């Protein structure tokens, strides 16, 4: 059977049972939708991903875009795929009808994009970046930007980028040095160098629109002096498109995501690069956070998708690969067994699945919070959902990136020596996956953001809402007859997380930020482990409820219970050790003198 990319049974469980996405259609914003329209969106994405994106993966991985006479030329096959991706009309799908969207819930969109990214992440990447960039113009741009650039981007006629990073300003965007000088004509003259800009140039569409951070002359130092600009490669001048002095100054030779070029760009090398201010001056980071938060969820989806396609490849390989004999009653004369007969191989497969489906559930739940945060029935529900969304975003980004990488490594391991060769595809997904813990804020930065800001925001209001939502899952699981030991374990881990957060926050309030944040990455690991246990309990409850109805899939229920059991037995107990580490006075990282190394 060809690689299914995602397990359709999981997707159906998430949509209908675990998170009841059709219930969202009771909200006026989503009222035009129903289960059938959700199915149509998912079917379209699934089919394209399986039938065209995945089969094209190998050739696009081996033949990345080239720099020819200062412009990027992509593989001809990508032109066809891009056209097919555009036909799905997904770029604007979650946006309002008045800007060309379909008002599709993000939770459904997330699942559709998961299929596409599992098929070919870097081919999909052009669309994801374009959506984020167009949404920035929709939210903060003036009439000129909203009418000139945004609609063409939402239709996929032009693509967009996020142009933040500079050679000296990666994690620290406060050090952005690109300048923007106002002119009497209303635009700014932009000058500076950007690096790693994904999709920064290509020949797929007629134009590329950069959403770039720059500093207006005289702006305050640091993050509060950074503004957001729309800097097209070709600017609209009457009916003409005019070269806007954006040069491709280099191409990054990446180890993965090969179909999407990452470029060094030079703005204003001839002194005529025009940029249009988006929103108010010096608010660039605040605006960009809208795109970065969306992009972080997209990165999380990618982490899951990349781990998922490799998981399915590993399952198929393991079922077919004969090697050794079963432990019980070893008989040298017997034919070899498939490696799935070995407990250690099953351990690896189960671990992959627990990471993949647990991560996917976390992403769909996070996206559902985003749907309610933006379109909930009343102010109170919107605020509450927004708090939990904010809390979960760094986890939804980092868990799939970090554990997904582990899952991808397990897929290589299951292939043995064959996995360590480019004849088999699993090595390529391992390369792709590594990016996810680096871009859109590294895991270290996500950890600082989670503990230093989001977990303690609003005096712990987000944590309080999260606590209640975990409680709801525990109650649901108990009512469904799920093993009560799991609800008890989840409550204990949740409460330990709350107590620990309070203790660490107190250190920060006492002025010792170093003691609060020294183990921020361990705290992120802890919170992620609890957050995924929460998803597994929800899924276990959902299959238990389903089992009471006719036609339930017994195999799927069994594997869901096995993953839940695995997570609660193998992963959740780590919370005790991680909490001890976070609150310990261990200074092994802090006291490490780089000179010793
Ligand atoms: C393939 C690819 C595509 C990309 N696409 C884009 C794009 O489209 N647009 C864009 O603007 N950028 C893009 N980037 C850039 C990406 O966002 C940056 O690489 C990332 O933010 C990290 O910055 P850096 O590479 O300068 O690493 P650094 O910031 O130098 O970080 C190096 C290491 O130090 C750690 N570190 C740094 N500061 C701190 C701190 N304060 N506390 C703790 N640890 C810290 C980091 O966690 C990391 O491990 C892309 C990068 C890649 C590789």
Please give a structural write-up.
Helix 7 runs antiparallel to helix 8, helix 7 runs antiparallel to helix 11 and helix 8 (343-375) packs antiparallel against helix 9. The protein is globular, with a radius of gyration of 24 Å. It is α+β, with helices and mostly antiparallel strands and 597 residues long. The strands form 3 sheets. A 5-stranded mixed β-barrel has the order 4-5-12-7-6. It has helices spanning 8-18, 35-62, 76-87, 106-140, 143-148, 150-154, 284-320, 343-375, 379-414, 416-419, 426-434, 443-454, 461-479, 484-509, 513-517, 520-547, 554-571, 574-583, and strands at 66-68, 71-73, 159-163, 179-182, 188-198, 208-216, 226-232, 234-237, 240-243, 246-251, 262-267, 274-277. Flavin-adenine dinucleotide (FAD) binds at residues 161-165, 170-171, 196-198, 254, 257, 262, 435, 438-439, 442, 444-445, 448.
Sum up the structure in keywords.
single chain, alpha+beta, 5-stranded mixed β-barrel, two-stranded antiparallel ribbon, 18 helices, 56% helix, binds flavin-adenine dinucleotide
